[in-house]
Amino acid sequence: MSRAAVLRNGEQVGLLIKESPKRYRFVYDEAWLNDPTKPSISLTLPKVQKEFVSVHLFPFFFNLLSEGVNLKLQARRLQIDENDFFSLLLQTSTTDTIGAVTIQEL
């Protein structure tokens, strides 16, 4: 099992967990979930629910990855299978993402 903290502007929003190759979970932190001033991180992961489960990496997180040739180059440089999206996310989304959300491996 692999776990990562999901941060928005440096503040922890929740956890992204890869339990197996076909089971991913995203869980909002209680403090974030209960604070009405804090937004959801995406329309597909609304704050009305604490836990989300998927057989694929959630599209919101998948879209933080590079595409095409850049993805292939990153995978080669990091020595990660280019289809291991979760590992690539952990290695490439700590600081250099578009928007306010970053990912940090735990």
Q: Could you explain how this protein is built, in words?
A:
By secondary structure, the protein is α+β, with helices and mostly antiparallel strands. The chain is globular.
How many β-strand stretches? 5
Query: pLDDT under 50 segments (min length 5)?
Result: none
Spatial extent as radius of gyration: 14 Å
Figure out the total of helices.
4
Given helix and strand content, the structural type is alpha+beta
Helix and strand string, N-terminal first? Answer: EEEHEHHHE
Q: What is the CA–CA distance across the termini?
A: 11 Å
Portion of residues in beta strands equals 25-35%
Helix fraction bin:
25-40%
Sheet bearing the most strands, described?
5 strands, antiparallel
**What is the topology, as strand order, of the major beta sheet?**
4-3-2-1-5
Mean pLDDT: 93
What's the overall geometry?
A: globular
Domain HipA N-terminal subdomain: 5-103
InterPro entries: HipA_N1 (IPR017508)
Protein name: HipA N-terminal domain-containing protein
Pfam families: Couple_hipA
List the helices and strands and how they pair.
Layout: E1 2-8, E2 11-20, E3 23-28, H1 30-34, E4 51-54, H2 59-62, H3 68-78, H4 85-92, E5 101-105
Antiparallel strand pairs: 1-2, 1-5, 2-3, 3-4
Short description:
This is HipA N-terminal domain-containing protein. With 106 residues, the chain is α+β, with helices and mostly antiparallel strands. It contains four helices and five strands.
